[in-house]
Design a protein that fits this description.
The complex is a heterodimer of chains A (113) and B (113).
Chain A (H helix, E strand, L loop, with lengths): L3 E4 L2 E4 L5 E7 L5 E8 L3 E8 L6 E2 L6 E5 L5 E5 L8 E8 L8 E2 L3 E5 L1
Parallel strand pairs in A: 2-11
Antiparallel strand pairs in A: 1-3, 3-8, 4-5, 4-9, 5-6, 7-8, 9-10, 9-11
Chain B lengths: L2 E4 L4 E4 L4 E8 L3 E9 L6 E7 L4 E4 L2 E6 L4 E6 L8 E9 L7 E2 L3 E6 L1
Parallel strand pairs in B: 2-11
Antiparallel strand pairs in B: 1-3, 3-8, 4-5, 4-9, 6-7, 7-8, 9-10, 9-11
Classes of the chains: A mainly beta (113), B mainly beta (113).
Chain lengths: 113, 113
Amino acid sequence: NAGVTQTPKFQVLKTGQSMTLQCAQDMNHNSMYWYRQDPGMGLRLIYYSASEGTTDKGEVPNGYNVSRLNKREFSLRLESAAPSQTSVYFCASSVSGFSYEQYFGPGTRLTVT
Amino acid sequence: SQKIEQNSEALNIQEGKTATLTCNYTNYSPAYLQWYRQDPGRGPVFLLLIRENEKEKRKERLKVTFDTTLKQSLFHITASQPADSATYLCALGLSGGSYIPTFGRGTSLIVHP
């Protein structure tokens, strides 16, 4: 099992460009999440999908959109990148429901110039 | 407002000693608390979960305590090794609300040989 995979690993964008971060899990998990991690800020939830077909906003959703393509895949889109979106992005998944541990991908390091 | 506090200063200890990391919280009624390990350039990895009605949980050299009166969790690594050097994150899940945990900023542990 690969667990949670993310592509790309690194990306540099210019302000105003768009891109999609891809995430896939092979653990048959129902719930998936997108976080960003900035120095001194910890992990902050951007969007999550409790189950296939549903998505909800997290703590910092502005400037992002998500798509739960199927049970395995959950993508994060930046429509018009801004320097404030420079961060490391992590995708995670969990079985579902109450207090299940999350499994994280390796992260995407994004720089917006 | 709700806060999760972890010591921002790195904890330096000698190999073989017990490392103790602290997670304090305010304005939360957590249903559970989790601890994760994060190595540089990688995603967090789940270590332990403790529920609000549990005082202590152990797993090999790891021990977690949860004191809902003091609003504090302690994370212990006994017989620490240089390989235990990493950043450790605590995460709280709320009772009666979203099941998704909120993460602290993490504490760096450095174990010297």
